[in-house]
Structures are given as structure tokens and as C-alpha cells.
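sry for the spam today, last one i promise. C-alpha cells for design, 118 residues
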């Protein structure tokens, strides 16, 4: 699988990339939603793992743009504050069938999510 990781926390993005690549997936990273969309268009990943809180374009805006471009792209939203979004995350899950990973998460949890998306 080709996977794009978008997070303004470069250390986290790199760790997620390394975990993904340890399972023979191909991964690229981007540091915000705006550059993430550009990388998405060039890389054409099967899965996008994105933080919600980011500068320029947040994860929700990125997800909407990606799904408008290709509704078959699988999305995973990461957040350390799921309660802040509460209802909007539930609505997004229902409307787009996205997965939400609550930070901090383990590599085991991440790999489990990816396995379910295969």
C-alpha cells in the first residue's frame, strides 16, 4: 500500500512513516495540510493518515479535498484531543467512514488500523 502521513509534528510523522515502511508499505510525509494535498496529488496514496490540528489547512479540510478528488481514498485522522471535536468527529466517521486514532497510539494500534484497511 502507498501511505501518506501528514502531521506538523515532524518527529511523529517520521516515526509513523518508519512503522509503515517496516511492514513493506511505501510512505511519504508532509508537514501541513496544504503541502499534504500537493504530495497527495503527486503520490496518489491508497491511505492518508493525517493529524487534525495543523497550520495552513487542517486535517478535516485536507480530508474533504482528498475525498472530493478521490472518494475511494482511505482516511485515518489522528488527534490528541478527540473531545474537542466530539460531534464533528462522529459525523465525519459516519459520513466518510474514516478511522480515528487517538494520540498517543502504539505502533501495534497503527498497524492494526492499516491491516483493517487492506
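last one done:
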Amino acid at each position: 500500500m502507498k501511505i501518506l502521513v501528514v502531521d506538523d509534528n515532524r518527529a511523529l510523522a517520521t516515526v509513523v512513516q518508519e512503522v509503515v515502511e517496516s511492514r513493506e508499505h511505501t510512505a511519504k510525509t508532509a508537514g501541513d495540510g496544504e503541502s499534504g494535498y500537493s504530495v497527495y496529488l503527486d503520490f496518489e496514496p491508497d491511505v492518508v493518515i493525517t493529524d487534525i490540528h495543523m497550520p495552513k489547512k487542517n486535517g478535516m479540510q485536507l480530508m474533504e479535498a482528498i475525498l472530493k478528488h478521490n472518494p475511494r481514498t482511505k482516511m485515518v485522522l489522528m488527534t490528541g484531543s478527540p473531545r474537542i471535536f466530539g460531534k464533528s468527529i462522529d459525523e465525519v466517521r459516519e459520513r466518510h467512514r474514516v478511522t480515528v486514532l487517538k494520540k498517543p497510539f502504539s505502533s501495534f494500534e497503527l498497524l492494526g488500523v492499516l491491516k483493517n484497511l487492506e
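The domain at 2-117 is CATH 3.40.50.2300 (Rossmann fold). ok im logging off now
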